[in-house]
Amino acid sequence: MVERLRAAMAGRVEEAFVDGAGNLVTRHGRGPLAVTFLGHVDTVPGVVPVTERDGALYGRGAVDAKGPLCAALAATARMPEQAREALTVRVIGAVGEEAPGSVGARHVVETQPEPELLVICEPSGWDAVTLGYKGHLRLELSCVRPGGHSAGPDGSAADRLLAGLNRLLGAFGAVDGAAASGRAFDRLQATVLALGHDHDGLSERASATVGVRLPPAWPPERLLAVVASSELGEGLEVRPIEGVPAVRGPRDGALTRAFRTAIRTVGGSPRTVVKTGTSDWNVVAGRWPAPALAYGPGDARLDHAPDEHLQLDDFDAAVEVVTSALGRLAQRAEGPSAGSSGSDQSPESA
Questions:
Q1: Residue 33 falls inside a structural domain
Q2: Strand 51-53 to strand 236-244: parallel, antiparallel, or no bridges (unpaired)?
Q3: Positions marked catalytic
Q4: What are residue 118's phi and psi, to 5 degrees?
Q5: Is residue 224 within 8 Å of 137, Cβ to Cβ?
Q6: In a domain? residue 103
Q7: CATH assignment of the domain containing 232
Q8: Which of 169, 194, 207, 294 has the most crowded CB, counting CB atoms within 10 A?
């Protein structure tokens, strides 16, 4: 798919290639203001038959996140000469966003120039911009003990694991000062992702994978300190698998103003949202601290859904929005710093 996208963009942009990690990288323009659009080309498993009906495109990844990526590619290809003189726009389709490790995004920050403005290609709705994502910490709990009869007095490894898991979830609830606020973006949210049990006749092992969505006040290190101080029970071990902190972009600034104005130009009433999930923004923010937001067509409630689909009118509107936003950024490129932001750095609620 990456090669097909590269071939489609060849001749429409100044550079299009596949990098060492397998990411699609395109570059268009030669101006002083560097703008990067970072999307992803991989999807979660599950075949959703590709069909077009009733003005919508059905298929796995239509919303998450090929619609947003292709909207950015289409808009970049349409940049007029004036914008190409003011901007250098890179559009990157990364691999591995849906997998632990985010290998594509991690390769990009090592090999591509740091942008002055960053747009994450994820579904916000064509008339909205996303100003923040929660962080994420994934933990593996395990308990190993000698095998024994289930009628024995000591309980099984699974018994001990479940008891320790309940203690851990209770510890998270006890330290979550925002638990009663009703605002999901500010709360710790723990989900048991998997449970497992193995027995070879001599020993048994029970395991659980827990994912915790982290608000801005809870970087992974803070939650790991809570884990380390919790008494979970004899024989229970906890191992962190992966963690990224929450991210928030400025509520005001040249980038957000350009998108809000562009949405109005296309006929929408701009909204700002924050997301309880994560994205490659969480991965690259530590190395690319540029003003950022996420934008793209699609209803995020359809992410990973069995009926994932994108309204094609929304896709067309998003292409117009990105095209208009790039034009406005080009107009500002010779003025005050395009990355400057206002004093209010807090995103609005979803």
A1: yes
A2: unpaired
A3: 42, 97
A4: -130, 130
A5: yes
A6: yes
A7: 3.30.70.360
A8: 294
Q: Which domain holds residue 43?
A: 2-134+247-332
| pLDDT at residue 339, rounded to an integer | 46
Cα separation, 235 vs 331, in Å, equals 63
pLDDT at 163: 95
Task: Compute, in degrees rounded to 10, the torsion defined by CA atoms 302, 304, 308, 312.
Answer: 70
Q: Which residues pair with 238 in a beta bridge?
A: 141
Give the C-alpha distances (Å, rounded to integers) separating 46 from 91, 98, 270, 280. Answer: 26, 13, 33, 21
What does the pLDDT read at residue 237? 94
Q: Enter the tokens of residue 106.
A: 């991690």
Cα 287 to Cα 52, 108, 166, 231, 249: the distances in Å are 40, 10, 36, 36, 15
Angle at 263 between CA 262 and CA 267, to 5 degrees: 115
The whole-number pLDDT of residue 153 equals 61
CA distances from 253 to 139, 186, 245, 280, 332 (A): 37, 23, 23, 21, 12
Contact criterion met (CB below 8 Å) for 62 and 306: no
The stretches of the chain forming alpha helices (DSSP H) are 2-9, 67-77, 81-86, 103-111, 157-175, 220-228, 254-265, 280-284, 312-332
In a domain? residue 292: yes
10 Å CB burial of residue 288 (0-12, 13-18, 19+) is buried
Q: Is residue 344 part of a domain?
A: no
pLDDT of residue 177: 80
Between CA 246 and CA 282 the distance in angstroms is 6
Residue 235's pLDDT is 87
Residues with pLDDT less than 50, the chain:
337-350
Q: What does the pLDDT look like over 134-189, one tens digit per residue?
A: 999 999 999 998 876 555 566 789 999 999 999 999 999 999 987 666 788 999 99
Q: What's the start-to-end Cα distance of the chain, in Å?
A: 33
